[in-house]
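re: that chain from earlier
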Amino acid sequence: MNRPSVYLHVGRTAARSHLAYLGEVAARATFLTVLLYIFLQLWRITYAETGADRLGGFTLAQMLWYLAMTEAIILSAPPVTPAIDQDARTGGIAVHLLRPISYPFYRLWVALGEQLVRFALNALVGAVLATALVGPAPLAARGVAMFLVAIPLAFTLDFTAHLGIGLCAFWLEDTSGLALLYRRATMLLGGVLLPIDLFPAGLRSALAFLPFRDVVYGPAHLFVQPDGDFLVRLLVRQATGVAALGLVAAAVYRAGVRRIHAHGG
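^ sequence. v structure.
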C-alpha cells in the first residue's frame, strides 16, 4: 500500500468512526438550529430598522444562508489541538515516529475525515432550517461548486494553524489557551457572525494579511455570491497561508522531535 493510500485509509477510518457518535451529531444539530433561529430574528430586525434591502451586498435570505454556512464550517472543526497536545505531553508522539508515515500528515487526514463528516451534517441541518425560515437558497449551481472547491483548502489552512499551536506543547504546559484565542479570533475576524463586507475599511485591509477570513468568510461568500475572480484570489491566499503556516509548524515539529531524541525518546 503506497503512502497516499495509507493517508486516504486514515481519513476514511476517522470519518466512519465519527459517524458512530450520533449523540454528538444530534447535540450539534440542536445547537445549530437554535443559533440560526436567533440570528434570523436579529437580522430581520436589523434589516427592518435600517429599511435596507441589502446590507454589505447581502439580502436577508442571502445573509441567513451565509450564516448557515459559516456556522457549519466553524462548528465542524475537530479537536486537533487537544489531540496533538496530548501526544506531545504524554510522549505518545514517539510511538507515531516509529511508523512509516508522517505524524503531521497522519493528524491532517484524521482531522479531515472527522471534519468532512461534521461539516456535511451541519450544512444539511443549516440548509433545512434556512429553507424553512427564508425559503430555498438564492444561489446558482456554480456557487455550490465554487464553495466545494474552496472548502478543502479552508479546512487544511485551519488545521495547519491548530497543528502549530498543538506542537507548542513540547515547551508549554497547556496549549488550550492559545487554541481558544485562535478559535475566538477566527469567529470574530473570520466573518462567522458578521460578514467582512460590513467591517470598517481599515480592518478589512488588515484582515487580508491574516488567515481567518480565508477559513470561513471566503467559502461562505462564494456560496451565496459566486465569483470566479474571487475564487482564484481566495485559493491563492489559502495556498499561501497553508505554505506559510506549514513552514512554521514544520520548524516547530522538527525542534520538538529533536527534543524527544535528546531526552532518549
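The mean pLDDT is 84.
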